[in-house]
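TA notes. Do not distribute before section.
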Amino acid sequence: MPIAVSACLLGEPCRFDGESRPCEAVLRLRATHELVGVCPETLGGLPVPRTPREIVATERALRVVDADGGDATDAFLAGAAKTTELVRERGCTLAVLKAKSPSCGNGFVYDGTFSGALVPGYGVAARALREAGVRVVDEAQFAACLKAGEARHPGCAPAVLATTSAECPSLGTERLVLRPLTSDDIDDVFAYCSDPAVGPDAGWAPHRTREDARMFVEVIASGPHVFGIFEKVSAGEDAGVSVGAEGPCIGSIGLIRDPQRRNVDCLMLGYALARSAWGRGYMTEAVREVLRYGFEELGLGMVTCTHYVFNDRSRRVIEKSGFVHEGTLHGMEATPDGLMRDAEAYYLTRERWSRLQGAVGA
């Protein structure tokens, strides 16, 4: 997976002051990943060193100036365009950019008064990359994701870098194992996905053949951050079953792109559970762990979710998990019966999730 990185984080002396800001969390990836260094400001034709510049936060139209009011907006836009072109050519879907920079800032930038004040916002290149569908994080956010993943899964590859489900770690709860599906799980998946009570409520037709299940496991569920749900076997060593072993697959859960939103910091929660496992709180348990994974290990800003208006079981899971109802999507899509259905839409921000975790732990 090629990763775009602000060149100053790789140790190149290309900052406005002629210095660099090497980031150890990024540099450690050199042995395993292709790092594509970018400096939008030099790509825009600005020299090193150069006059410091900031985005004027009080204006709706983009303007990048120096302390004397000199305008450098055109150079920043040119650099952003060349950065986006390079990142696309190299196939990068993730960029780790320098925090607070007028080019690379992600979430906060200096406000244009040259007083050291920060305001919510994005650098010019960060805006262009996000618009192009590239996920952008700054070095602090990236390091936090790596730290959270290492604490939970020592020695495993960071989840934030995963491009397939096989590259994702296995997750665990008190009663469940959540892990990437493999071809060995196809028969289990067919067993619950062929039940007409399961698929239609989640928006897909019941599996008619084992080939349907194979397609789901090997194609649909092979994307990153999609997991099978397995019940932990409770029998002990004296029963001939090792503690912590898993039973058959009883469902799936994952975080995928939300087709309703153009927000690279947002993923959508989706899930399905075998009818034999209903009414035991399993899905609420699985959702809470996947939300933790999304906010801590992926550094997401928001997770969304929808359910058809008739699906009260899903509604209860979503509400128990802390999501906020934001409205009805009328005629959102056709269900397997061919009818256009309304869906209820929900969202959960990272800030709200963190507050809820603090309230639980208090």
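Switch to the second chain here.
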Amino acid sequence: MSLTKGIFVVLFLLLIIQVDAQRDTTDIKSYADQVMIRANLDTNIESYIFTEGEKGNEKKQIFSINNKTKVSFSVDYRIISATISFAPRFFEGNNDNDLKGNSSYTDFSVRFFPNRLIQNLYYKNVKGFYIENMKELFPAWKEGDSYMQFPDLRVQSFGGSTAYILNKNFSARSIYTQGEWQKKSSGSWVPFLDYDLTILRNKIEDQKAKETQYKLGANMGYFYNWVLGKNVNIAPYLALGLGGKFSTYRDVFGDGSIKNVQYLTLRMEGGLHIGYNTDRFLFGGKMNFSAYAYNQTRNQAVQNNSLYGLLYIGYRFAPPRVVKNTYDKVQKKIPVL
């Protein structure tokens, strides 16, 4: 199934699901009738690790971006949660351009929460990498020396995930976006599919290189929301997955032919969320990690690792009349909303 067909299937499934956005129960309190705004500050550490050689004698190259702090703003209303993120240059660690080169980072994501389904769609654009482990590769290198830079290396991703909450009394939204509040401690298994289209571009020795990758994975995760008293929760989760990766590129340094290759992929992600919630104010922190790996050949492996801590603060308020009326009009044409 192509990525485009897969997206149409997901949208079709969304349309046939009966939605109850305001789902107050004995276990879950919904804030779907409120507008929620959040500001997030996180340490976005994204790296690609390329390993080559026999086991025990591998050579590793770690490609990182020169942006260590990211700011994002989110708006939630009804079943929609939208977030835009970027890396301001005025933060320390985002502007060490003389040694590590210039990097840019932007992403936009939107989540839908119809009933027990979670649909996430995102776009991410990262440009400008440097080799982080210079001392390991070049013993003569010392702190204060310039890093090897790849200013034209750009990674663009268009993708998403589709998840289903098996336990109807568990609120994943209380962890993802704080659009609900779990009144009683509960957990759930969460199967989900992840998929994306990634385009990698680089320029080496005046040669432009481009690789297009399609990924599809099946995952199973477990989430638990431990509610401490009336306002505090602690929520750990862990997920594992298998998938396939399909890559197309032109061999610009060889015979110029088009190459098509397939890989088996492994994925693991997890994290811990601690939050404080009232009907108006909310704040908390998260620590998440994501590890994605595949073997290119027998002695070559690639990993895409992401590790970050996040702090957030938010506020809920009644929707302005124009927002409510506009949403109601759109909902009549698109019932899934």
